[in-house]
Design a protein that fits this description.
The structure is a single chain. The chain is mainly alpha-helical. Helix content is about 50%, strand content about 5%. The strands form two sheets. Strands 1-2-3 form a three-stranded antiparallel beta sheet, covered by helices on one side. It has a two-stranded antiparallel sheet with strand order 4-5.
């Protein structure tokens, strides 16, 4: 359902500013997500990150929070093993297949955590994380946002949503959130007002977050994305100043 790059021709409503796949804009996006996921702008330090945060998804790890219980960690380790057979994580593939869909650590545990840290020193593993981030999250979000006529802020709003909620069309997944927004506003590609549509999308995102206790703190929307929206910074141009979970961050450009 997802994948691939969006059109290079701006759809109706897009003013032609730099999209999120511009290297400087993409760096901003990675730092914004890292501020919410890891309380740090240093997203490249997160390749080694791994812990169970108690949200029912097993281990959460890496630059976008790949989870052992949701399938994207399994896909990552499979991709890593395609790139580098016999890597330090390859032996955990049977266990990752068994725990998929649960919060179980069976066959993983402390040894897996140690080996994840070792793998993070491998440039091939870091490349694999980048590849899977783009394939599963970044590229699909950007493709849909471009089709909806959204500029960089809207593109980021889609990306941050798909990172947290995952692709899929149930009510609290990315497609479900977008469908909820479309019931209340039209995107620019359909002749709608971009600010009004993004407000509706963020409202839908907040609703989805509040359906799950682990995501019920909505500050990454309230004191981050809405701050940029209220400033009418639809191109997500620095300087950017925001808060997540009460902590202050800034990107000066």
């Amino acid at each position: 359902m997802y994948g691939g790059k969006g059109s290079t021709t701006p759809p109706p409503g897009h003013t032609g500013g730099k999209d999120l796949d511009d290297p400087a804009k993409k760096e901003i996006a990675m730092e914004l997500v890292s501020s919410a996921e890891n309380s740090s702008l240093d997203w490249k330090a997160q390749y080694t990150y791994i812990e169970d945060i108690g949200d029912g998804r097993g281990y959460t790890a890496g630059i976008v929070g790949f989870c052992s219980g949701t399938g994207d960690m399994l896909d990552l380790v499979e991709h890593y093993t395609d790139l580098e057979p016999g890597n330090v994580l390859a032996k955990y593939l049977p266990a990752l297949r068994k725990v998929n869909g649960s919060d179980s650590h069976s066959g993983l545990g402390d040894a897996f955590v140690r080996d994840w840290h070792k793998a993070a020193d491998d440039a091939v593993f870091r490349r694999a994380q980048d590849d899977e981030r783009d394939r599963v999250y970044f590229d699909p979000a950007l493709k849909q946002a471009k089709a909806d006529g959204l500029r960089a802020l809207g593109q980021f709003a889609y990306y941050d949503a798909i990172v947290m909620h995952g692709p899929g069309d149930d009510a609290t997944s990315f497609d479900g959130i977008r469908k909820r927004a479309l019931r209340n506003a039209k995107p620019p590609s359909q002749g709608g007002d971009e600010v009004k549509y993004l407000d509706a999308f963020l409202d839908a995102r907040v609703w989805a977050m509040k359906q799950e206790e682990a995501h019920s703190d909505t500050s990454r929307v309230d004191t981050e994305q809405r701050v940029f929206l209220r400033a009418n910074n639809l191109d997500l141009d620095p300087p950017l100043r925001w808060k997540v979970y009460g902590d202050s961050y800034e990107i000066d450009g």
